[in-house]
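## Example record

The block below lists the input lines for one assembly entry, exactly as stored, with component labels intact.
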Amino acid sequence: MERGLLLPGSPLLEVNNLRVEFTTDRSKILAVDGVDISLERGKTLGLVGESGCGKSVTALAVMGLLPRHASISGEVIFKDRNLLKLRRGEIVKIRGNQISMIFQEPMTSLNPVFNIEYQLAEVFKLHRGKSGKEVRSEIVDLLRTVGIPNPERRMKDYPHQLSGGMRQRVMIAMAMACEPDILIADEPTTALDVTIQAQILELMKELQRIHDTGLLMITHDLGVIAQVAENVAVMYAGHIMEYSGVRDIFSDPLHPYTRGLLNTIPRISKKRTRLEEIKGTVPHMSNVPPGCRFHERCSERLARCSEETPPLSNVNGRTVRCWLYK
Amino acid sequence: MALYKYFIKRLALTLPTLIGVSIIVFLLIHMIPGDPVDIMLGDRVTDASRLALEERLGLNQPLHIQYWNWFSNAVKGDFGISIRSNQPVIEEIMSRLPATVELTVVALFIAVVFGIIFGVSAARYRNTTIDYSMIGFSLLGVSIPIFWLGMMLIFFFSVILGWLPVSGRLAMGIAIPQVTGLYLVDALFAGNISYFWDALKHLALPAFSLATVSLALIVRVTRSSMLDVLSEDYIRTARAKGVRENKVVFTHALKNAMIPVVTVIGLQLAKLMGGAILTETVFSWPGIGRLLVTAISVRDYPVVQGVVFFVAFAFIAINIVVDLFYAYLDPRIRYE
Ligand SMILES: Nc1ncnc2c1ncn2[C@@H]1O[C@H](COP(=O)(O)OP(=O)(O)OP(=O)(O)O)[C@@H](O)[C@H]1O
Ligand code: SF4
Ligand SMILES: [Mg+2]
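Predicted structure tokens for the full assembly:
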């Protein structure tokens, strides 16, 4: 119904100038600083960067799931509404219904004291007003779709009776139960074995294709990005550093940080024996470095880099934040 | 594994404990320094009464036979005859049991219900005035001696304000028809609200004194357990599903947070039983605790044995119930 109203190509979700700062006893942590991203129906945006650069915080801000000590500004536009301005009673109707999220830790993301059926039924109850026996067959179907064998029996199981891969399938089932417009996946495969990883990614792509879901895939693994994403946003220390199509990112990375990340993935063709690491670590955001946030680790640093912060700018139709392209 | 199988397993594990307890209680009478018969009879000792008592207690038989006789009678509820009143010990216990049960159950109810409500609110409204006042209350509560608290409550509410009675279970001249011996329940059976009210007024101070320490502890444990649970990943999942905050707290979090709380409640029951002795003494509450204190002071050993064994037995039974509840809450125990 509402889907038809959206113009083709117009973004499903738009995050504009998002800024998140945590105030703790001792310090202020600027976790996200002016992030712009947008997500289209049926398309996947990869959000990539090292640990601690603000990926999860960005996602949680979209979901309205940040703790109270976070101060948030900017806008998150979904279906003409700014989610950051919604009252609690309204955002809970969107969560798990139109926008869903799955998390990195399948072992701890399901409630240990409720069985799988209860945890899935809850979603239907919350958003479809259905309960009990009405949804049993839907749950069975759903579990079958995500590849859980013997769903009639398995749904009586408690989380501790399932393997990590199975639990992540249950999480996916839960997230997709209401056929959301948007699925945010925060490192959904990081904790899993390589073979299971591939299966889970395959499953997510399949469900995305069926339901035409917009997918925000958060990862620090460019291999995952290569498999699923059309567009990529490279994030570093709360900033978007580079934002472009997945082909460009891999064939012609502009930002030195992107190049650094690419050097960390093994490539058979180049016969590298040792992977290169990016030297140094992500700066802690209680103490934001002046100038370009990456300058302490950048091998192509210019004089101005440690003083002036480069803006995100357009370079031949691509978006990058670096003084090399000015 | 189904809950009932767990129950049976748990029951079997109880048997050794029960036997151990019974041996200790049995030996109680033999641990009296000197000759138990002399001590129990005091000045009243004559040769005839000596023999009679020895006979009655079976002290002239070998120890293991004595134990067996005592144990096989005890499990049937026969603890012998009170030296002081010449009544069967079990009758003495049974006539005072309802008073103690009523007191402990109401105290436990207060401690558990308010303990959980306060603890959950403190966690939910962390670092607010609500939280700080709960922390303050629980710090105070755990360190107050029951004896002193009881006295202060009597002084304030009974002596100064005159709102509540000083002691006993009912006002003079009131007699509630006995059905269960629990006056609150019996008053309701009798359909007499003013009796109910009277019984409640008598119960208020002793129950509150008895509850305070446990209440404070339950608040503390609930709060910290809730705070742990609320930062768990599955709580974030629940929120991401669109569950409203109240339901997140009271369903998703509370059921998990209750697991350590139930352990503490189980432990508190032992404390409540001990506390009941003090409380009954302060408020002249005619329960088992007072029976025990009196029996000790007049060296009525069959009664002492009977009460101690009975309480130990009750304690074991309660522990089983607590464990069952535990297994109900946590599927990981059930399926072990
Ligand atoms: N609740 C919070 N309170 C205070 N600081 C926080 C909180 N959550 C995140 N941060 C801080 O915000 C920064 C960004 O964290 P975020 O979790 O978004 O990183 P990430 O990119 O998802 O990394 P990872 O790959 O490790 O998941 C970090 O410095 C982190 O310490
Ligand atoms: S702005 Fe300077 S320091 Fe930053 S990435 Fe570009 S060259 Fe490196
Ligand atoms: Mg993260």
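The interface with chain B takes residues 63, 65, 88-89, 92-97, 100-101, 103, 105, 108-115, 122-123, 126-127, 158, 160-161, 171, 174 of chain A (CB under 8 Å). The mean pLDDT of chain A is 89.
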